[in-house]
C-alpha cells in the first residue's frame, strides 16, 4: 500500500450476502487470485510458452506429470513455495522431455521470460475491481506465485494502487489450497471469513476457502464473474465486459 493510500481513509462499503445457512453477513473485502483471474487463462499461457520454447505442448504436459511422479509434487508447487529455484524447476522438466527438446531452456533462456510473453493482464476485471474499491470495498490478492517472477507480474498490474493486502505463496512458504495460507490471509486482513468473498479459477482453491466459511466465486470468464459478484453484493454491473471474458 502506498503512503497516499494510507493517508486517505476510504469509507468501507458493506453488503449483506447470504451464507450457506441463509443468514446475512457483512461482506466488505474481495479477495482475488492472480493467474487465470487477473490474467488470461492458464491454458493460453501454457500453449504460448510451449510454442516459444519450441516444445510440443503434449510433451511438455507429460514432462510436468512425470516430474510430479518422480519428486512427489508438481514442479510448480515446489517453485511457488520457494522450495526450489526456477533453475531447479527447469532442470526437473528438462529431465523428463524427449532428447533435444527444450533447447532454449537448456541454453539458459529464462522460463519466466518466455512464460510472461504469453501472459496478459485481464484489464476488464481489473477495471471492475477498481470500481469496487471506489465503492469502499477492500481488495486483496491471494496468489500462488514465484520469487523470480515477482518483477514480471507486478509490472502488469497496479498492485500498490489496487490491493490493500497481498499474500504471496513464495513469501509464506505455503500455497493454496493449504489451509495455512487462508489463515495467513485472514490474519493479515484482520477480519473474519464471513466478511470476505474469494474469487479463484481453481475449484480446489475455492473449496478450501469455503471450508473456512469464506464465500466463493469460481472464475470461468470475466462476464459471468462480474455478474455473479455484483449479484452477491446487490450491486449493479458497473463495467462493460465483452463476450470473450477472461480470455483477454
UniProtKB/TrEMBL annotation:
Any Pfam family hit:
Hydrolase
- InterPro entries the UniProt entry points to: ACAD10-like, HAD-like_sf, HAD-SF_hydro_IA, HAD_sf, PGP-like_dom2
Q: Which domain of life is it from?
A: Bacteria
Name listed for the protein in its UniProt record: Haloacid dehalogenase
Organism of origin:
Streptomyces lacrimifluminis
Q: What is the lineage of its organism?
A: Bacteria, Bacillati, Actinomycetota, Actinomycetes, Kitasatosporales
Amino acid at each position: 500500500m502506498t503512503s497516499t493510500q494510507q493517508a486517505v481513509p476510504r469509507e468501507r462499503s458493506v453488503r449483506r450476502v447470504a451464507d450457506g445457512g441463509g443468514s446475512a453477513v457483512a461482506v466488505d473485502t474481495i479477495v482475488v487470485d492472480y493467474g487465470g483471474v487477473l490474467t488470461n487463462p492458464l491454458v493460453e499461457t501454457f500453449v504460448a510458452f510451449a510454442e516459444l520454447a519450441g516444445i510440443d505442448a503434449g510433451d511438455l504436459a507429460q514432462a510436468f506429470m512425470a516430474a510430479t511422479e518422480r519428486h512427489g509434487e508438481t514442479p510448480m508447487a515446489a517453485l511457488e513455495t520457494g522450495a526450489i529455484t526456477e533453475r531447479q524447476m527447469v532442470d526437473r522438466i528438462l529431465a523428463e522431455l524427449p532428447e533435444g527438446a527444450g533447447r532454449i531452456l537448456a541454453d539458459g533462456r529464462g522460463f519466466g521470460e518466455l512464460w510472461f510473453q504469453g501472459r496478459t493482464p485481464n484489464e476488464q476485471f481489473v477495471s471492475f475491481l477498481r470500481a469496487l474499491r471506489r465503492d469502499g470495498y477492500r481488495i486483496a490478492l491471494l496468489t500462488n506465485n514465484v520469487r523470480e517472477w515477482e518483477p514480471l507480474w507486478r509490472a502488469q498490474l497496479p498492485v500498490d494502487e489496487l490491493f490493500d493486502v497481498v499474500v504471496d505463496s513464495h513469501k509464506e512458504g505455503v500455497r493454496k489450497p493449504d489451509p495455512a495460507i487462508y489463515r495467513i490471509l485472514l490474519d493479515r486482513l484482520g477480519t473474519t471469513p464471513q466478511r470476505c468473498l474469494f474469487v479463484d479459477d481453481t475449484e480446489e482453491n475455492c473449496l478450501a476457502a469455503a471450508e473456512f466459511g469464506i464465500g466463493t466465486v469460481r472464475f470461468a470468464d470475466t462476464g459471468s464473474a462480474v455478474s455473479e459478484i455484483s449479484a452477491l453484493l446487490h450491486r449493479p454491473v458497473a463495467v462493460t465486459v465483452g463476450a470473450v471474458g477472461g480470455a483477454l
